[in-house]
Amino acid sequence: MCGILAALGVSGDAETNRRDILKLSKILRHRGPDASGIYQAPDGKAFIAFERLSIVDPSPCGNQPFQIQTPEGNINWALNSEIYNHEDIRATQLAGVKNPSKSDSSVIGHLYHKYGESNDLWNSLDGIFACVIWDERTNTFVAARDAVGICSLYWGKGKDGSTWFASEMKSLQTKCEWIDTFPPGHVYRSTTGELERWYNPVWVDEAYIGDQAANFDQIRETFIAAVKKRLMSDAPLAVLLSGGLDSSLVASIAVRTVKDAENAFDRDHKMHTFSIGIEGSPDLKAARKVADFLGTDHHEFTFTVEEGIDALYELVYHIESYEQVRAAVPMFLLARKIKALGIKVVLSGEGADEELGGYLYFHKAPSPEEYHKECVRLVKRLHKFDVMRANKAPFAFGVETRVPFLDKAFLDLTMTMDAREKMPDLKTKPDGAHPKLEKYVLRKAFDVPEDPFLPEEVLWRQKEQFSDGVGYDWVDGLKEYAERVISDDMWDAREVRFPDHTPRTREYFLLRTIFEDHFPHESSLNTVPKGLSIACSTEEAIKWDAEWANAHEISGRAIKSVHESAAPNGTA
Predict the structure, then answer these.
(1) 322 touches 528 (CB < 8 A)
(2) Any idea what DSSP says for residue 432?
(3) The pLDDT value given to residue 469
(4) Which of the residues 46, 111, 146, 411 has the least number of beta carbons within 10 Å of its own beta carbon?
(5) Is residue 99 helix, strand or coil?
(6) Is the pLDDT of residue 439 over 70?
(7) What whole-number distance in Å separates Cα of residue 472 and Cα of residue 461?
(8) CB count, 10 Å around CB of 340?
(9) What is the reported pLDDT for 282?
């Protein structure tokens, strides 16, 4: 992973532009502190800059931007990526092609050389990426982003008509007339001037309703493969462990498979796990239990409400949003500890709640059709919520996050499943022993008593939002702080201060103020999602319960009846 910045079709003095672009690229160096590089087109009208975090092939051969030389002009590219099938691509699609780099990112340009602008290039990749290619042969470019937007990417237009791309919005603030999020699963070609969706699974259309029965063996084996392939690294790797179902399964599988993962780093060492929370929080206790069960080298950190509040200003700068702040702060604080111990890569549990309907409000879904549509909406917006947070908060300290639940093969399995299989119903026990909790199909797939993946009480622990699980004192303390610092006069004038998308709480008033201080560009606000939410729902799901009308509270505690009724079956 890394930070990329591209300025394509720029005008003016080439030397001046080069110096400017190097300065703007340096803003991204927290994403790639290990090496820097820049490509300049022969005519000085295109630049690609790169800040490297060395993970696969840390040798100089892995430095970017990459280049293929041809008599007609060179092909140049840089990308933020983890291409898990790059070795298979070398052996099959690129058999016989000379490529001195062992970096997974290096195969992209060679595939482009073979396929041109065809979507065969992007569909052949099993992994995540944000990529820009400049072709000197035609003075044209291509940019693309992975299926669900795990790698961050923004783009914009300069006053001179140039097109800019960057891993983070902050590098585009001074050069672009407009800035926007580059959409996941899409490709842009300068030859057509149009965005095109390259990722087209059947489920991406909300009108499609899955009808596949839950196959527990297939669910288990597909997810094990998703975790195992993400152990690919030439740098130290660990797992973020909250003690909840999702991260605990990731940790369990990582421990089981690391010795068999041929491309993993230091396969003979204990797997490292990390957790963070307010002293005495539910997550710390649960994570400790899981770590003891798995035998990991576990690292536990605590933070205070004051430390979390002190981190707000810097945190918002890094995640470039005023959403997800509650959950991002502990992740941000933990990432610094992780990097200080020399670890560059972590696996995390994001994505399961969206694709399987793990949030507590899903108990109120009025029908299987609505349940499925909500899962689709959540997955399609992840790049502005949990995935954005999981990417940018750790990258503030040069730590890469990998999310196996968003593996394409696993998504194809879960998102084509009959929603009735996924819908929770606490009144029933399909196996005769366990209530049908949220994510029942996942729990049951890993319910293997003869060779348990997790302790029973963890496998069947009820959902906690990460910001809740690290300690309710953190969420409540943030709210109380906002009530103190946002005065009555400030609050009464909120519609004057923020005429567009006026904050509904003093917490959001505070975070919006910090955001606009960092990102004054008029387009910046458009990159942040809007709308009401109940316990992390989309705005459309607010209609499921009349009591939620006009409400906005992302904590799982907002779904009180479900939380209380399920408490005897797990941590609530």
Answers:
(1) yes
(2) S
(3) 59
(4) 111
(5) coil
(6) yes
(7) 17
(8) 9
(9) 86
